[in-house]
Amino acid sequence: MVNTEARIDKWLWAARIFKTRTIAAAACKKGQVSMNGTLLKASRMIKAGDVVSVRKPPVTYSFRVLQPIERRVGAKLIPEILENVTTPDQYELLEMSKISGFVGRSKGTGRPTKKDRRNLEDFQSEVPEFFGDFEFDLEDGDEE
User: How high is the pLDDT of residue 90?
Assistant: First the structure.
């Protein structure tokens, strides 16, 4: 018997979007899971064809439900369960946050690690090449 509907928290866990069902339910409670702009409760039933948005700062991922399941499946079967329809600009945002790394530390992440401190010091001590000595010859302009 194939399910036609599944609870959103169970589906998010079964589709391997969240590591545990508890984390998936907590994300729903925090308002990080939505469908068509409407925030979803953990008990909300979803069906095939629904597009679910999951906000994992700084990115909002979007997934189309292909199969509503409530039991976890192997990672190789995930393409049969969901389709990733996240827009490319979200991935650019993710890439930018990875590049900036330590610049915009999230609140509550604690003190920077020793590696973070070293990276910050390296970043602040580097002087780009283009700040070197310039010589301008203003008298030899483009005269015609």
Answer: 83
Closest alpha carbon to 15 in 81, 76, 62, 63: 81
For the chain, the residue count is: 144
Residue ranges of domains in the chain: 5-102
Q: What is the pTM of this model?
A: 0.66
**Separation of alpha carbons 40 and 7, rounded Å:** 10
Whether the per-residue pLDDT at 20 is higher than 90: the answer is yes
b/e per residue 11-32 (b: at least 16 CB within 10 A): bbbbbebbeebeebbebbeeeb
Question: What whole-number distance in Å separates Cα of residue 100 and Cα of residue 94?
Answer: 10
* CATH 3.10.290.10 fits domain 5-102: yes
Question: What are the tens digits of pLDDT across the range 99-110?
Answer: 765 555 666 777
Non-local (6+) Cβ contacts of 93 within 8 A are 58, 59
